[in-house]
Structure formats: C-alpha cells, structure tokens
Design brief:
The chain is built from 8 helices and 9 strands. The protein is α/β, with parallel strands linked by helices. The relative contact order is 0.22.
C-alpha cells in the first residue's frame, strides 16, 4: 500500500544501489555484499601505479557492467516521470536513462564517460575501452567478482598498460565522484532546489551512509516535508523518516501499483507498466 503521507503529493525520488541489484550490479552494504576498500580520489591522483591498479580492474568491470539492463524498478519510475518532482540517483550505471527517464540528476557522475584530469576533455567510455583492449589484449576476459562501481576484485594488475588522453596525453579518470572527492556545487544546488519544490521525498534502495545523499533527507526534514524510505536494513536517515519500509524496493513498488492505478495519489501510471 502506498503510504498515506504520499497521497496527493508530487514526490522527489532519491535512488541508491539497492535499485540496481536486480540488474546484477551488487550494492555496497546489503546482505551478502562483498567487502571492499574503494580507491579514494587522493590515491588515484597519487601515482601511476595506483591508476594502473584502478584501470586494470575497471577495464574488466566495464566488460560486465555495460551488459546490465534496466530492471522493473527503473521502468516503473520512468513510466511515472511526468508525475514525479524529479529523480536524483547516487548510482553511476545510467540505468535510469536507459529505461527512458529524462532529466535524471546523476549525483555521483556517470560510468559511461571518461574525463581527462589535465585538460577536461570528456570521452565515451566505450571508445576508451576499445583503446585499452588494444593496449592489453585479452585482459578484459579475466574472471573476477564484480563490485558496485563497475570495477572487480582483481589483485594482479602488474603489466596493465594505461591509456592517456588523446588530446593532451593527460591522466584519464571515469567521470564519477570517487570517495574523498566532492560532488560539483552546481549539482548539489540543483538537488536542493528539487527538494524545495517537491511535496515529499522518497528514498529507494539507499542506506544513506554518505553525506552526499543524506543531506537532502535532512534538508527535506527541515522543510517539514514527508519522507518515505524504502530499504532493506537500517539507514542513517531512519530517525528523519515519516515512514520507513524495511523491504526490497522492487517488491514494495509492485505492491503500490494497484493503489496508484486506483488514483490514491496524483501519479498516473501508464498502461505499459513493467508489472
């Protein structure tokens, strides 16, 4: 059942890794998650060896992640986007966009783009992947468990050859926000504006462990807006939630379909719902 606090309100949706698990992309902190120590931005900047280790793993991971497809949750949200106040995602997998969702704010960037740290040139990830394939024949075929941000659990990375920027021979980095790196100020400002304009905030599949997402929940609470959190297990925003649903995202949204069809809220789902 759709929580009563959402009735007749336009929701802003904030999504996390739990939305993409049904697409085969693991989350960070859910049951069975692989323990990981992600490379920080400072480490990435620190040396060629660190960048080699990162790209050696990410090259294998991209071979897996680019095959992921949107799941029913992505389609559910895309089908209702005209009635939403907006969508902010902490995920970098672009699956919301692939499902047809327009105007998504990719809070932590997009894994399908690569940026030069020295001249700022942005490249298509697939083009960089092909260059890395040519420099490291057969490397992408390594067997390793995929991790949430598109890299893999691969330790032996010696010998991997880095690609450099085609314009300036500079250092390449996926166009995503690393741990220890700040979200661009203009992106944060747009998100705060969406919170202000929305009539409620719905958090789907995020433990809110990082401040980049939690700050919007806190902002909504200060503005007195209803907050609904759907996530398996505790989140850092539970004490601010008007309603907390400790359950899977896909199962919860599926249970909301009939209420939405019946007009319980202003959301008007299209006939081609994924469920």
């Amino acid at each position: 059942m759709v929580p009563d606090v959402l009735a007749g309100r336009r929701w802003l949706v904030l999504t996390g890794a739990g939305v993409s698990t049904d697409s085969g992309i693991p989350d960070y902190r859910g049951p069975g998650s692989i323990a990981r120590s992600p490379m920080t931005f400072q480490e990435f900047l620190g040396s060629d060896d660190n960048r080699r280790r990162y790209w050696a793993r990410a090259h294998v991971g991209w071979s897996r992640m680019r095959g992921a497809h949107p799941n029913p949750t992505h389609h559910w949200l895309a089908e209702r986007q005209e009635a939403l106040a907006g969508l902010i995602t902490q995920n970098v997998d672009t699956l919301h966009e692939q499902a047809g969702h327009r105007g998504v704010i990719d809070l932590h960037g997009r894994i399908d783009r690569v940026r030069c740290l020295d001249c700022g040139t942005v490249s298509d990830r697939e083009a960089v992947h092909r260059r890395l394939d040519a420099l490291n024949p057969g490397w992408a075929a390594h067997e390793a468990a995929i991790l949430p941000d598109g890299d893999v659990a691969l330790e032996a990375t010696d010998g991997f050859v880095l690609a450099t920027c085609e314009r300036c021979a500079g250092r390449l980095k996926p166009d995503v926000v690393f741990f220890g790196e700040s979200v661009p100020k203009d992106v944060v400002a747009r998100c705060f504006s969406l919170v202000d304009d929305a009539e409620a905030l719905v958090v789907l599949g995020s433990s809110l462990q990082v401040m980049s997402g939690l700050r919007f929940v806190r902002h909504a609470a200060k503005r007195g807006k209803p907050i609904v959190i759907v996530n398996r297990g505790q989140t850092r925003g539970d004490d601010l939630a008007t309603v907390k649903i400790d359950h899977g995202v896909a199962e919860t949204l599926q249970s909301w379909v009939q209420d939405l069809v019946g007009g319980m809220t202003r959301l008007a789902p299209r006939a081609n719902t994924s469920w």
